[in-house]
Amino acid sequence: LFGLFVNLVFLGQAFTIMLVYVWSRRNPYVRMNFFGLLIFQAPFLPWVLMGFSLLLGNSIIVDLLGIAVGHIYFFLEDVFPNQPGGGRLLRTPSVLKAIFDTPDDDPNYNPLPEERPGGFAWGEGQRLGG
C-alpha cells in the first residue's frame, strides 16, 4: 500500500531493506563490517546501506520505504505483543494455513526398515591391496 503513495511498481529492493531492518533489530549485538571501512552494530545496517545508496546517487525513497515498513512489522510482531495489554495483530489467514501447513504426523506410522541407508550396498566390495 505504501508503494502506491510513492509511485513504486517494483518493491523488491524495499522488501530486501525491510528484511534487513527486521534482522538487524532482532540481532542488535552483531558487529558489522562495511567494506572494511566502517565497523558498527547491526541495528545501523539499514541506515549504512541507505547512506551508501545515497553516495551512489540513487533515490533513497525505496530505502526509507523499506525501513518504515520494517519498523512497523518489527513493532507489531516483536514489541507490541510483549507490552502490557498488547497482543498479536498480524495473523496468518486460515486459508493460507489450510493450504500450506503440513498435516500432523500419524502416530501409527512405521516406515519400512532399510538394509542400507539410501539403498546402496556400501562397503561390500573387495579391500584394496589385498
UniProtKB/TrEMBL annotation:
Gene Ontology CC entries for this record: endoplasmic reticulum membrane
Subcellular location: Endoplasmic reticulum membrane
Single biological process term from Gene Ontology: response to stress
Family of the protein in this entry: Belongs to the derlin family.
Organism: Semnornis frantzii
Top-level taxonomy: Eukaryota, Metazoa, Chordata, Craniata, Vertebrata
Function of the molecule: Functional component of endoplasmic reticulum-associated degradation (ERAD) for misfolded lumenal proteins. May act by forming a channel that allows the retrotranslocation of misfolded proteins into the cytosol where they are ubiquitinated and degraded by the proteasome.
Keyword Lipid biosynthesis: no
Topology relative to the membrane: Multi-pass membrane protein
Region (Disordered): 104-130
Gene name in the database record: Derl2_1
Stated name of the protein: Derlin
Keywords, ordered alphabetically: Endoplasmic reticulum, Membrane, Transmembrane, Transmembrane helix
